[in-house]
Amino acid sequence: MEMTFYRYYIHPSQDADSGELLAKSFVAEGFKHYTEIKSWSKGNHSEKFFYFKKIPKIEILCLRLDFDANFTSQILQYLNDCEKKAEIDTTFLLGKIDVWAGYKMPLEETVNFAAKHYDLLSFKPVEIKIEKSTAARLNWLWPNEKAIYAASIDPQDENAQYFLEFELPCIEASLLKLDNITKYYKEKLPLITKKKNEMDQRLARIINSSFSSIKNQQELIKELENQLENLSSLYSIIASDYSIVLEGIDKISQALKYSQNLLYNKQKNSIFGKQLYEKIFNYYIYKLEDMKNIEKNLRISRENYQAAIDVLRSRLDILISHENIETQQQIKEIMEVNISLQKQGLVFQFAAGLVEFIVLAYYSHSLWKALSPAAYHMVEGWIQFIIVCLFSGCTVYLTHLIAEYIQGEKHFLKRIITLTILLFILLAVTFVFGIAVEQGAIH
Q1: CA distance 117 to 183
Q2: What pLDDT shows up at residue 441?
Q3: Can you give the pLDDT at residue 394?
Q4: 36 C-beta neighbours (distance < 10 Å), count
Q5: What angle (nearest 5°) sits at the alpha carbon of residue 135, between those of residues 129 and 137?
Q6: Which among 28, 72, 301, 362 is placed 20 to 30 Å from 18, CA to CA?
Q7: Is the dihedral of CA 405, 407, 408, 409 positive or negative?
Q8: Which residue in 18, 114, 9 sits closest to 63, CA to CA?
Q9: Strand arrangement, sheet containing 48-55
Q10: How far apart are CA 336 and CA 408, in angstroms?
Q11: By the 8 A CB rule, do 111 and 150 touch?
């Protein structure tokens, strides 16, 4: 009894290096690269081949072994030994598909023949009609990341051979990819839904919070800021979960569309009947619709959070604006007091300067009269008045400038020097004039 055995190793494209290492281990065992189709009817039933197939983001290492049925008890162990020799971690594989094809064996006999190699106690084969041949999938989905086919083939059936060698690997890979993506996001949904419900309850409590007991405006602002921070944190969680669900919908939709396109023509050709086609995809369509409903609910929650944040922010802005108005009013009052004090300071400063000027004028006039009476009496009264006023005014102004200079107003230095020189000249002239008059009076 002659048979052909196929195995498809399905793995992500990102693990292509591991797939290459696995292929090299089979090459070392005498597997040849399958470069052209070798008809079942003309095959040498001792040959071993390998080849690659690809779909988007998935690669498939395919093996074909032609053998006598007496070798079947060893074939699975033989392939397991080849995998071990590759010395790689086979967890990178998404799944393995085994196909047992018996030449002109009744399908039931081929199914039972294949089932005994996997210790399958109960199974419900799903039959597939391929031209002159018939095949059956022994299990539904991929228990333990494996799927098993048994086929009763006509060696002359080229369409059946092409289907098993080139189309079935891609169909299984696309469905396995779809199942893995769906499973990944399905596991996330309960936690996302639970978090959403809990956060919706927290949102309701925040919205219904009453701040009437808080009388102090500063405390009210602080409480609103805390609530706003909490809402923003919850919003970020909702937005993140929403993005995850959207991503899941997109990936499942793409994988589902790709798989449906692969199987659509097979449905039309009756390889996959309408009932089987619907059975395969209804589960994933249902899960996709479930995710869309969750996405809709998450979108509503996200919008509710955004609305609540906007309301709290508006209320906070109003309170802060009222506080700013009060602060500005207080600043205005302080500025008015400051201006009033500045005005009083100017009055006092002017009064002090005037007193200083009068005192200085009086004593400078008296001092001049006492020290140089002859010179004093020779000068006209109005000239005395001008000289005394000039001296007193310059002296008062100079003391003011020196005080400003000491406080850091360095740009007054030139004025200080100018006034000092002017006062020195005025004193020098008065002194020289007084000496000259006194000497004239002696002579």
Answers
A1: 28
A2: 55
A3: 78
A4: 4
A5: 115
A6: 72
A7: negative
A8: 9
A9: 32-33, 48-55, 58-68, 2-12, 95-103, 146-153, 133-137, 126-130
A10: 27
A11: yes
The DSSP line for 284-344 is HHHHHHHHHHHHHHHHHHHHHHHHHHHHHHHHHHHHHHHHHHHHHHHHHHHHHHHHHHHHH
Q: What share of the chain is helix, strand, coil (3-state, %, to 5)?
A: 70, 15, 15
Q: How far apart are CA 25 and CA 6, in angstroms?
A: 17
Under 8 Å CB-to-CB from 77, ≥6 apart: which residues? Answer: none
Q: Specify whether the backbone of 242 is left (phi greater than 0), alpha (psi in -120 to 50) or beta.
A: alpha
**pTM of the predicted model, to two decimals?**
0.69
CA separation for the pair 339, 86 (Å, rounded): 91
Buried b vs exposed e over 105-133: b needs ≥16 C-beta within 10 Å? bebeebbebbbeeeeeeebebbebebbeb
Sign of the CA dihedral with 417 first, then 418, 422, and 423 last: negative
Tokens of 198: 């809990």
Alpha carbon distance 22, 89 (integer Å): 10
In DSSP terms, which residues pair with 153 in a beta bridge?
Answer: 103
pLDDT at site 264: 76
- Cα distance between residue 243 and residue 24, in whole Å: 41
> What's the DSSP call for residue 31?
P
User: How many other C-beta atoms can be found within 10 angstroms of the C-beta atom of residue 323?
Assistant: 13
Residue 229: HSE in the Cβ half-sphere, 13 Å Cα cutoff: 6
Distance, CA of 175 to CA of 260 (rounded, Å): 9
CB neighbours of 215 closer than 8 A, spacing ≥ 6? none
Closest C-alpha among 394, 414, 412, 413 to residue 353: 394
Q: What angle do CA 189, 191, 192 make, to 5 degrees?
A: 60
**What is the end-to-end Cα distance of the chain in Å, rounded?**
165
pLDDT of the residue at 190: 92
Provide the pairing of β-strand 146-153 with 32-33. Answer: unpaired
Residue indicated by tokens 């000491």: 406
- The Cα 150–Cα 115 span in angstroms is 9
pLDDT lower than 70: segments of the chain = 1, 41-45, 68-73, 121, 209-217, 265-273, 322, 324-325, 345, 348, 360-361, 363, 365, 367-379, 381, 384, 434, 437-443
Q: In sequence order, what DSSP letters do the residues of 201-242 get, joined into one string?
A: HHHHHHHT---TT---HHHHHHHHHHHHHHHHHHHHHHHHHH
Residue in this structure with the two tokens 């996959």, named with its chain if needed: 272
Cβ(184)–Cβ(255) under 8 Å?
A: no
- Quick count: other Cβ atoms within 10 Å of Cβ 15? 18
Q: Give the separation between CA 13 and CA 180, rounded to whole angstroms.
A: 15
| Structure token digits, residue 418 | 């100018």
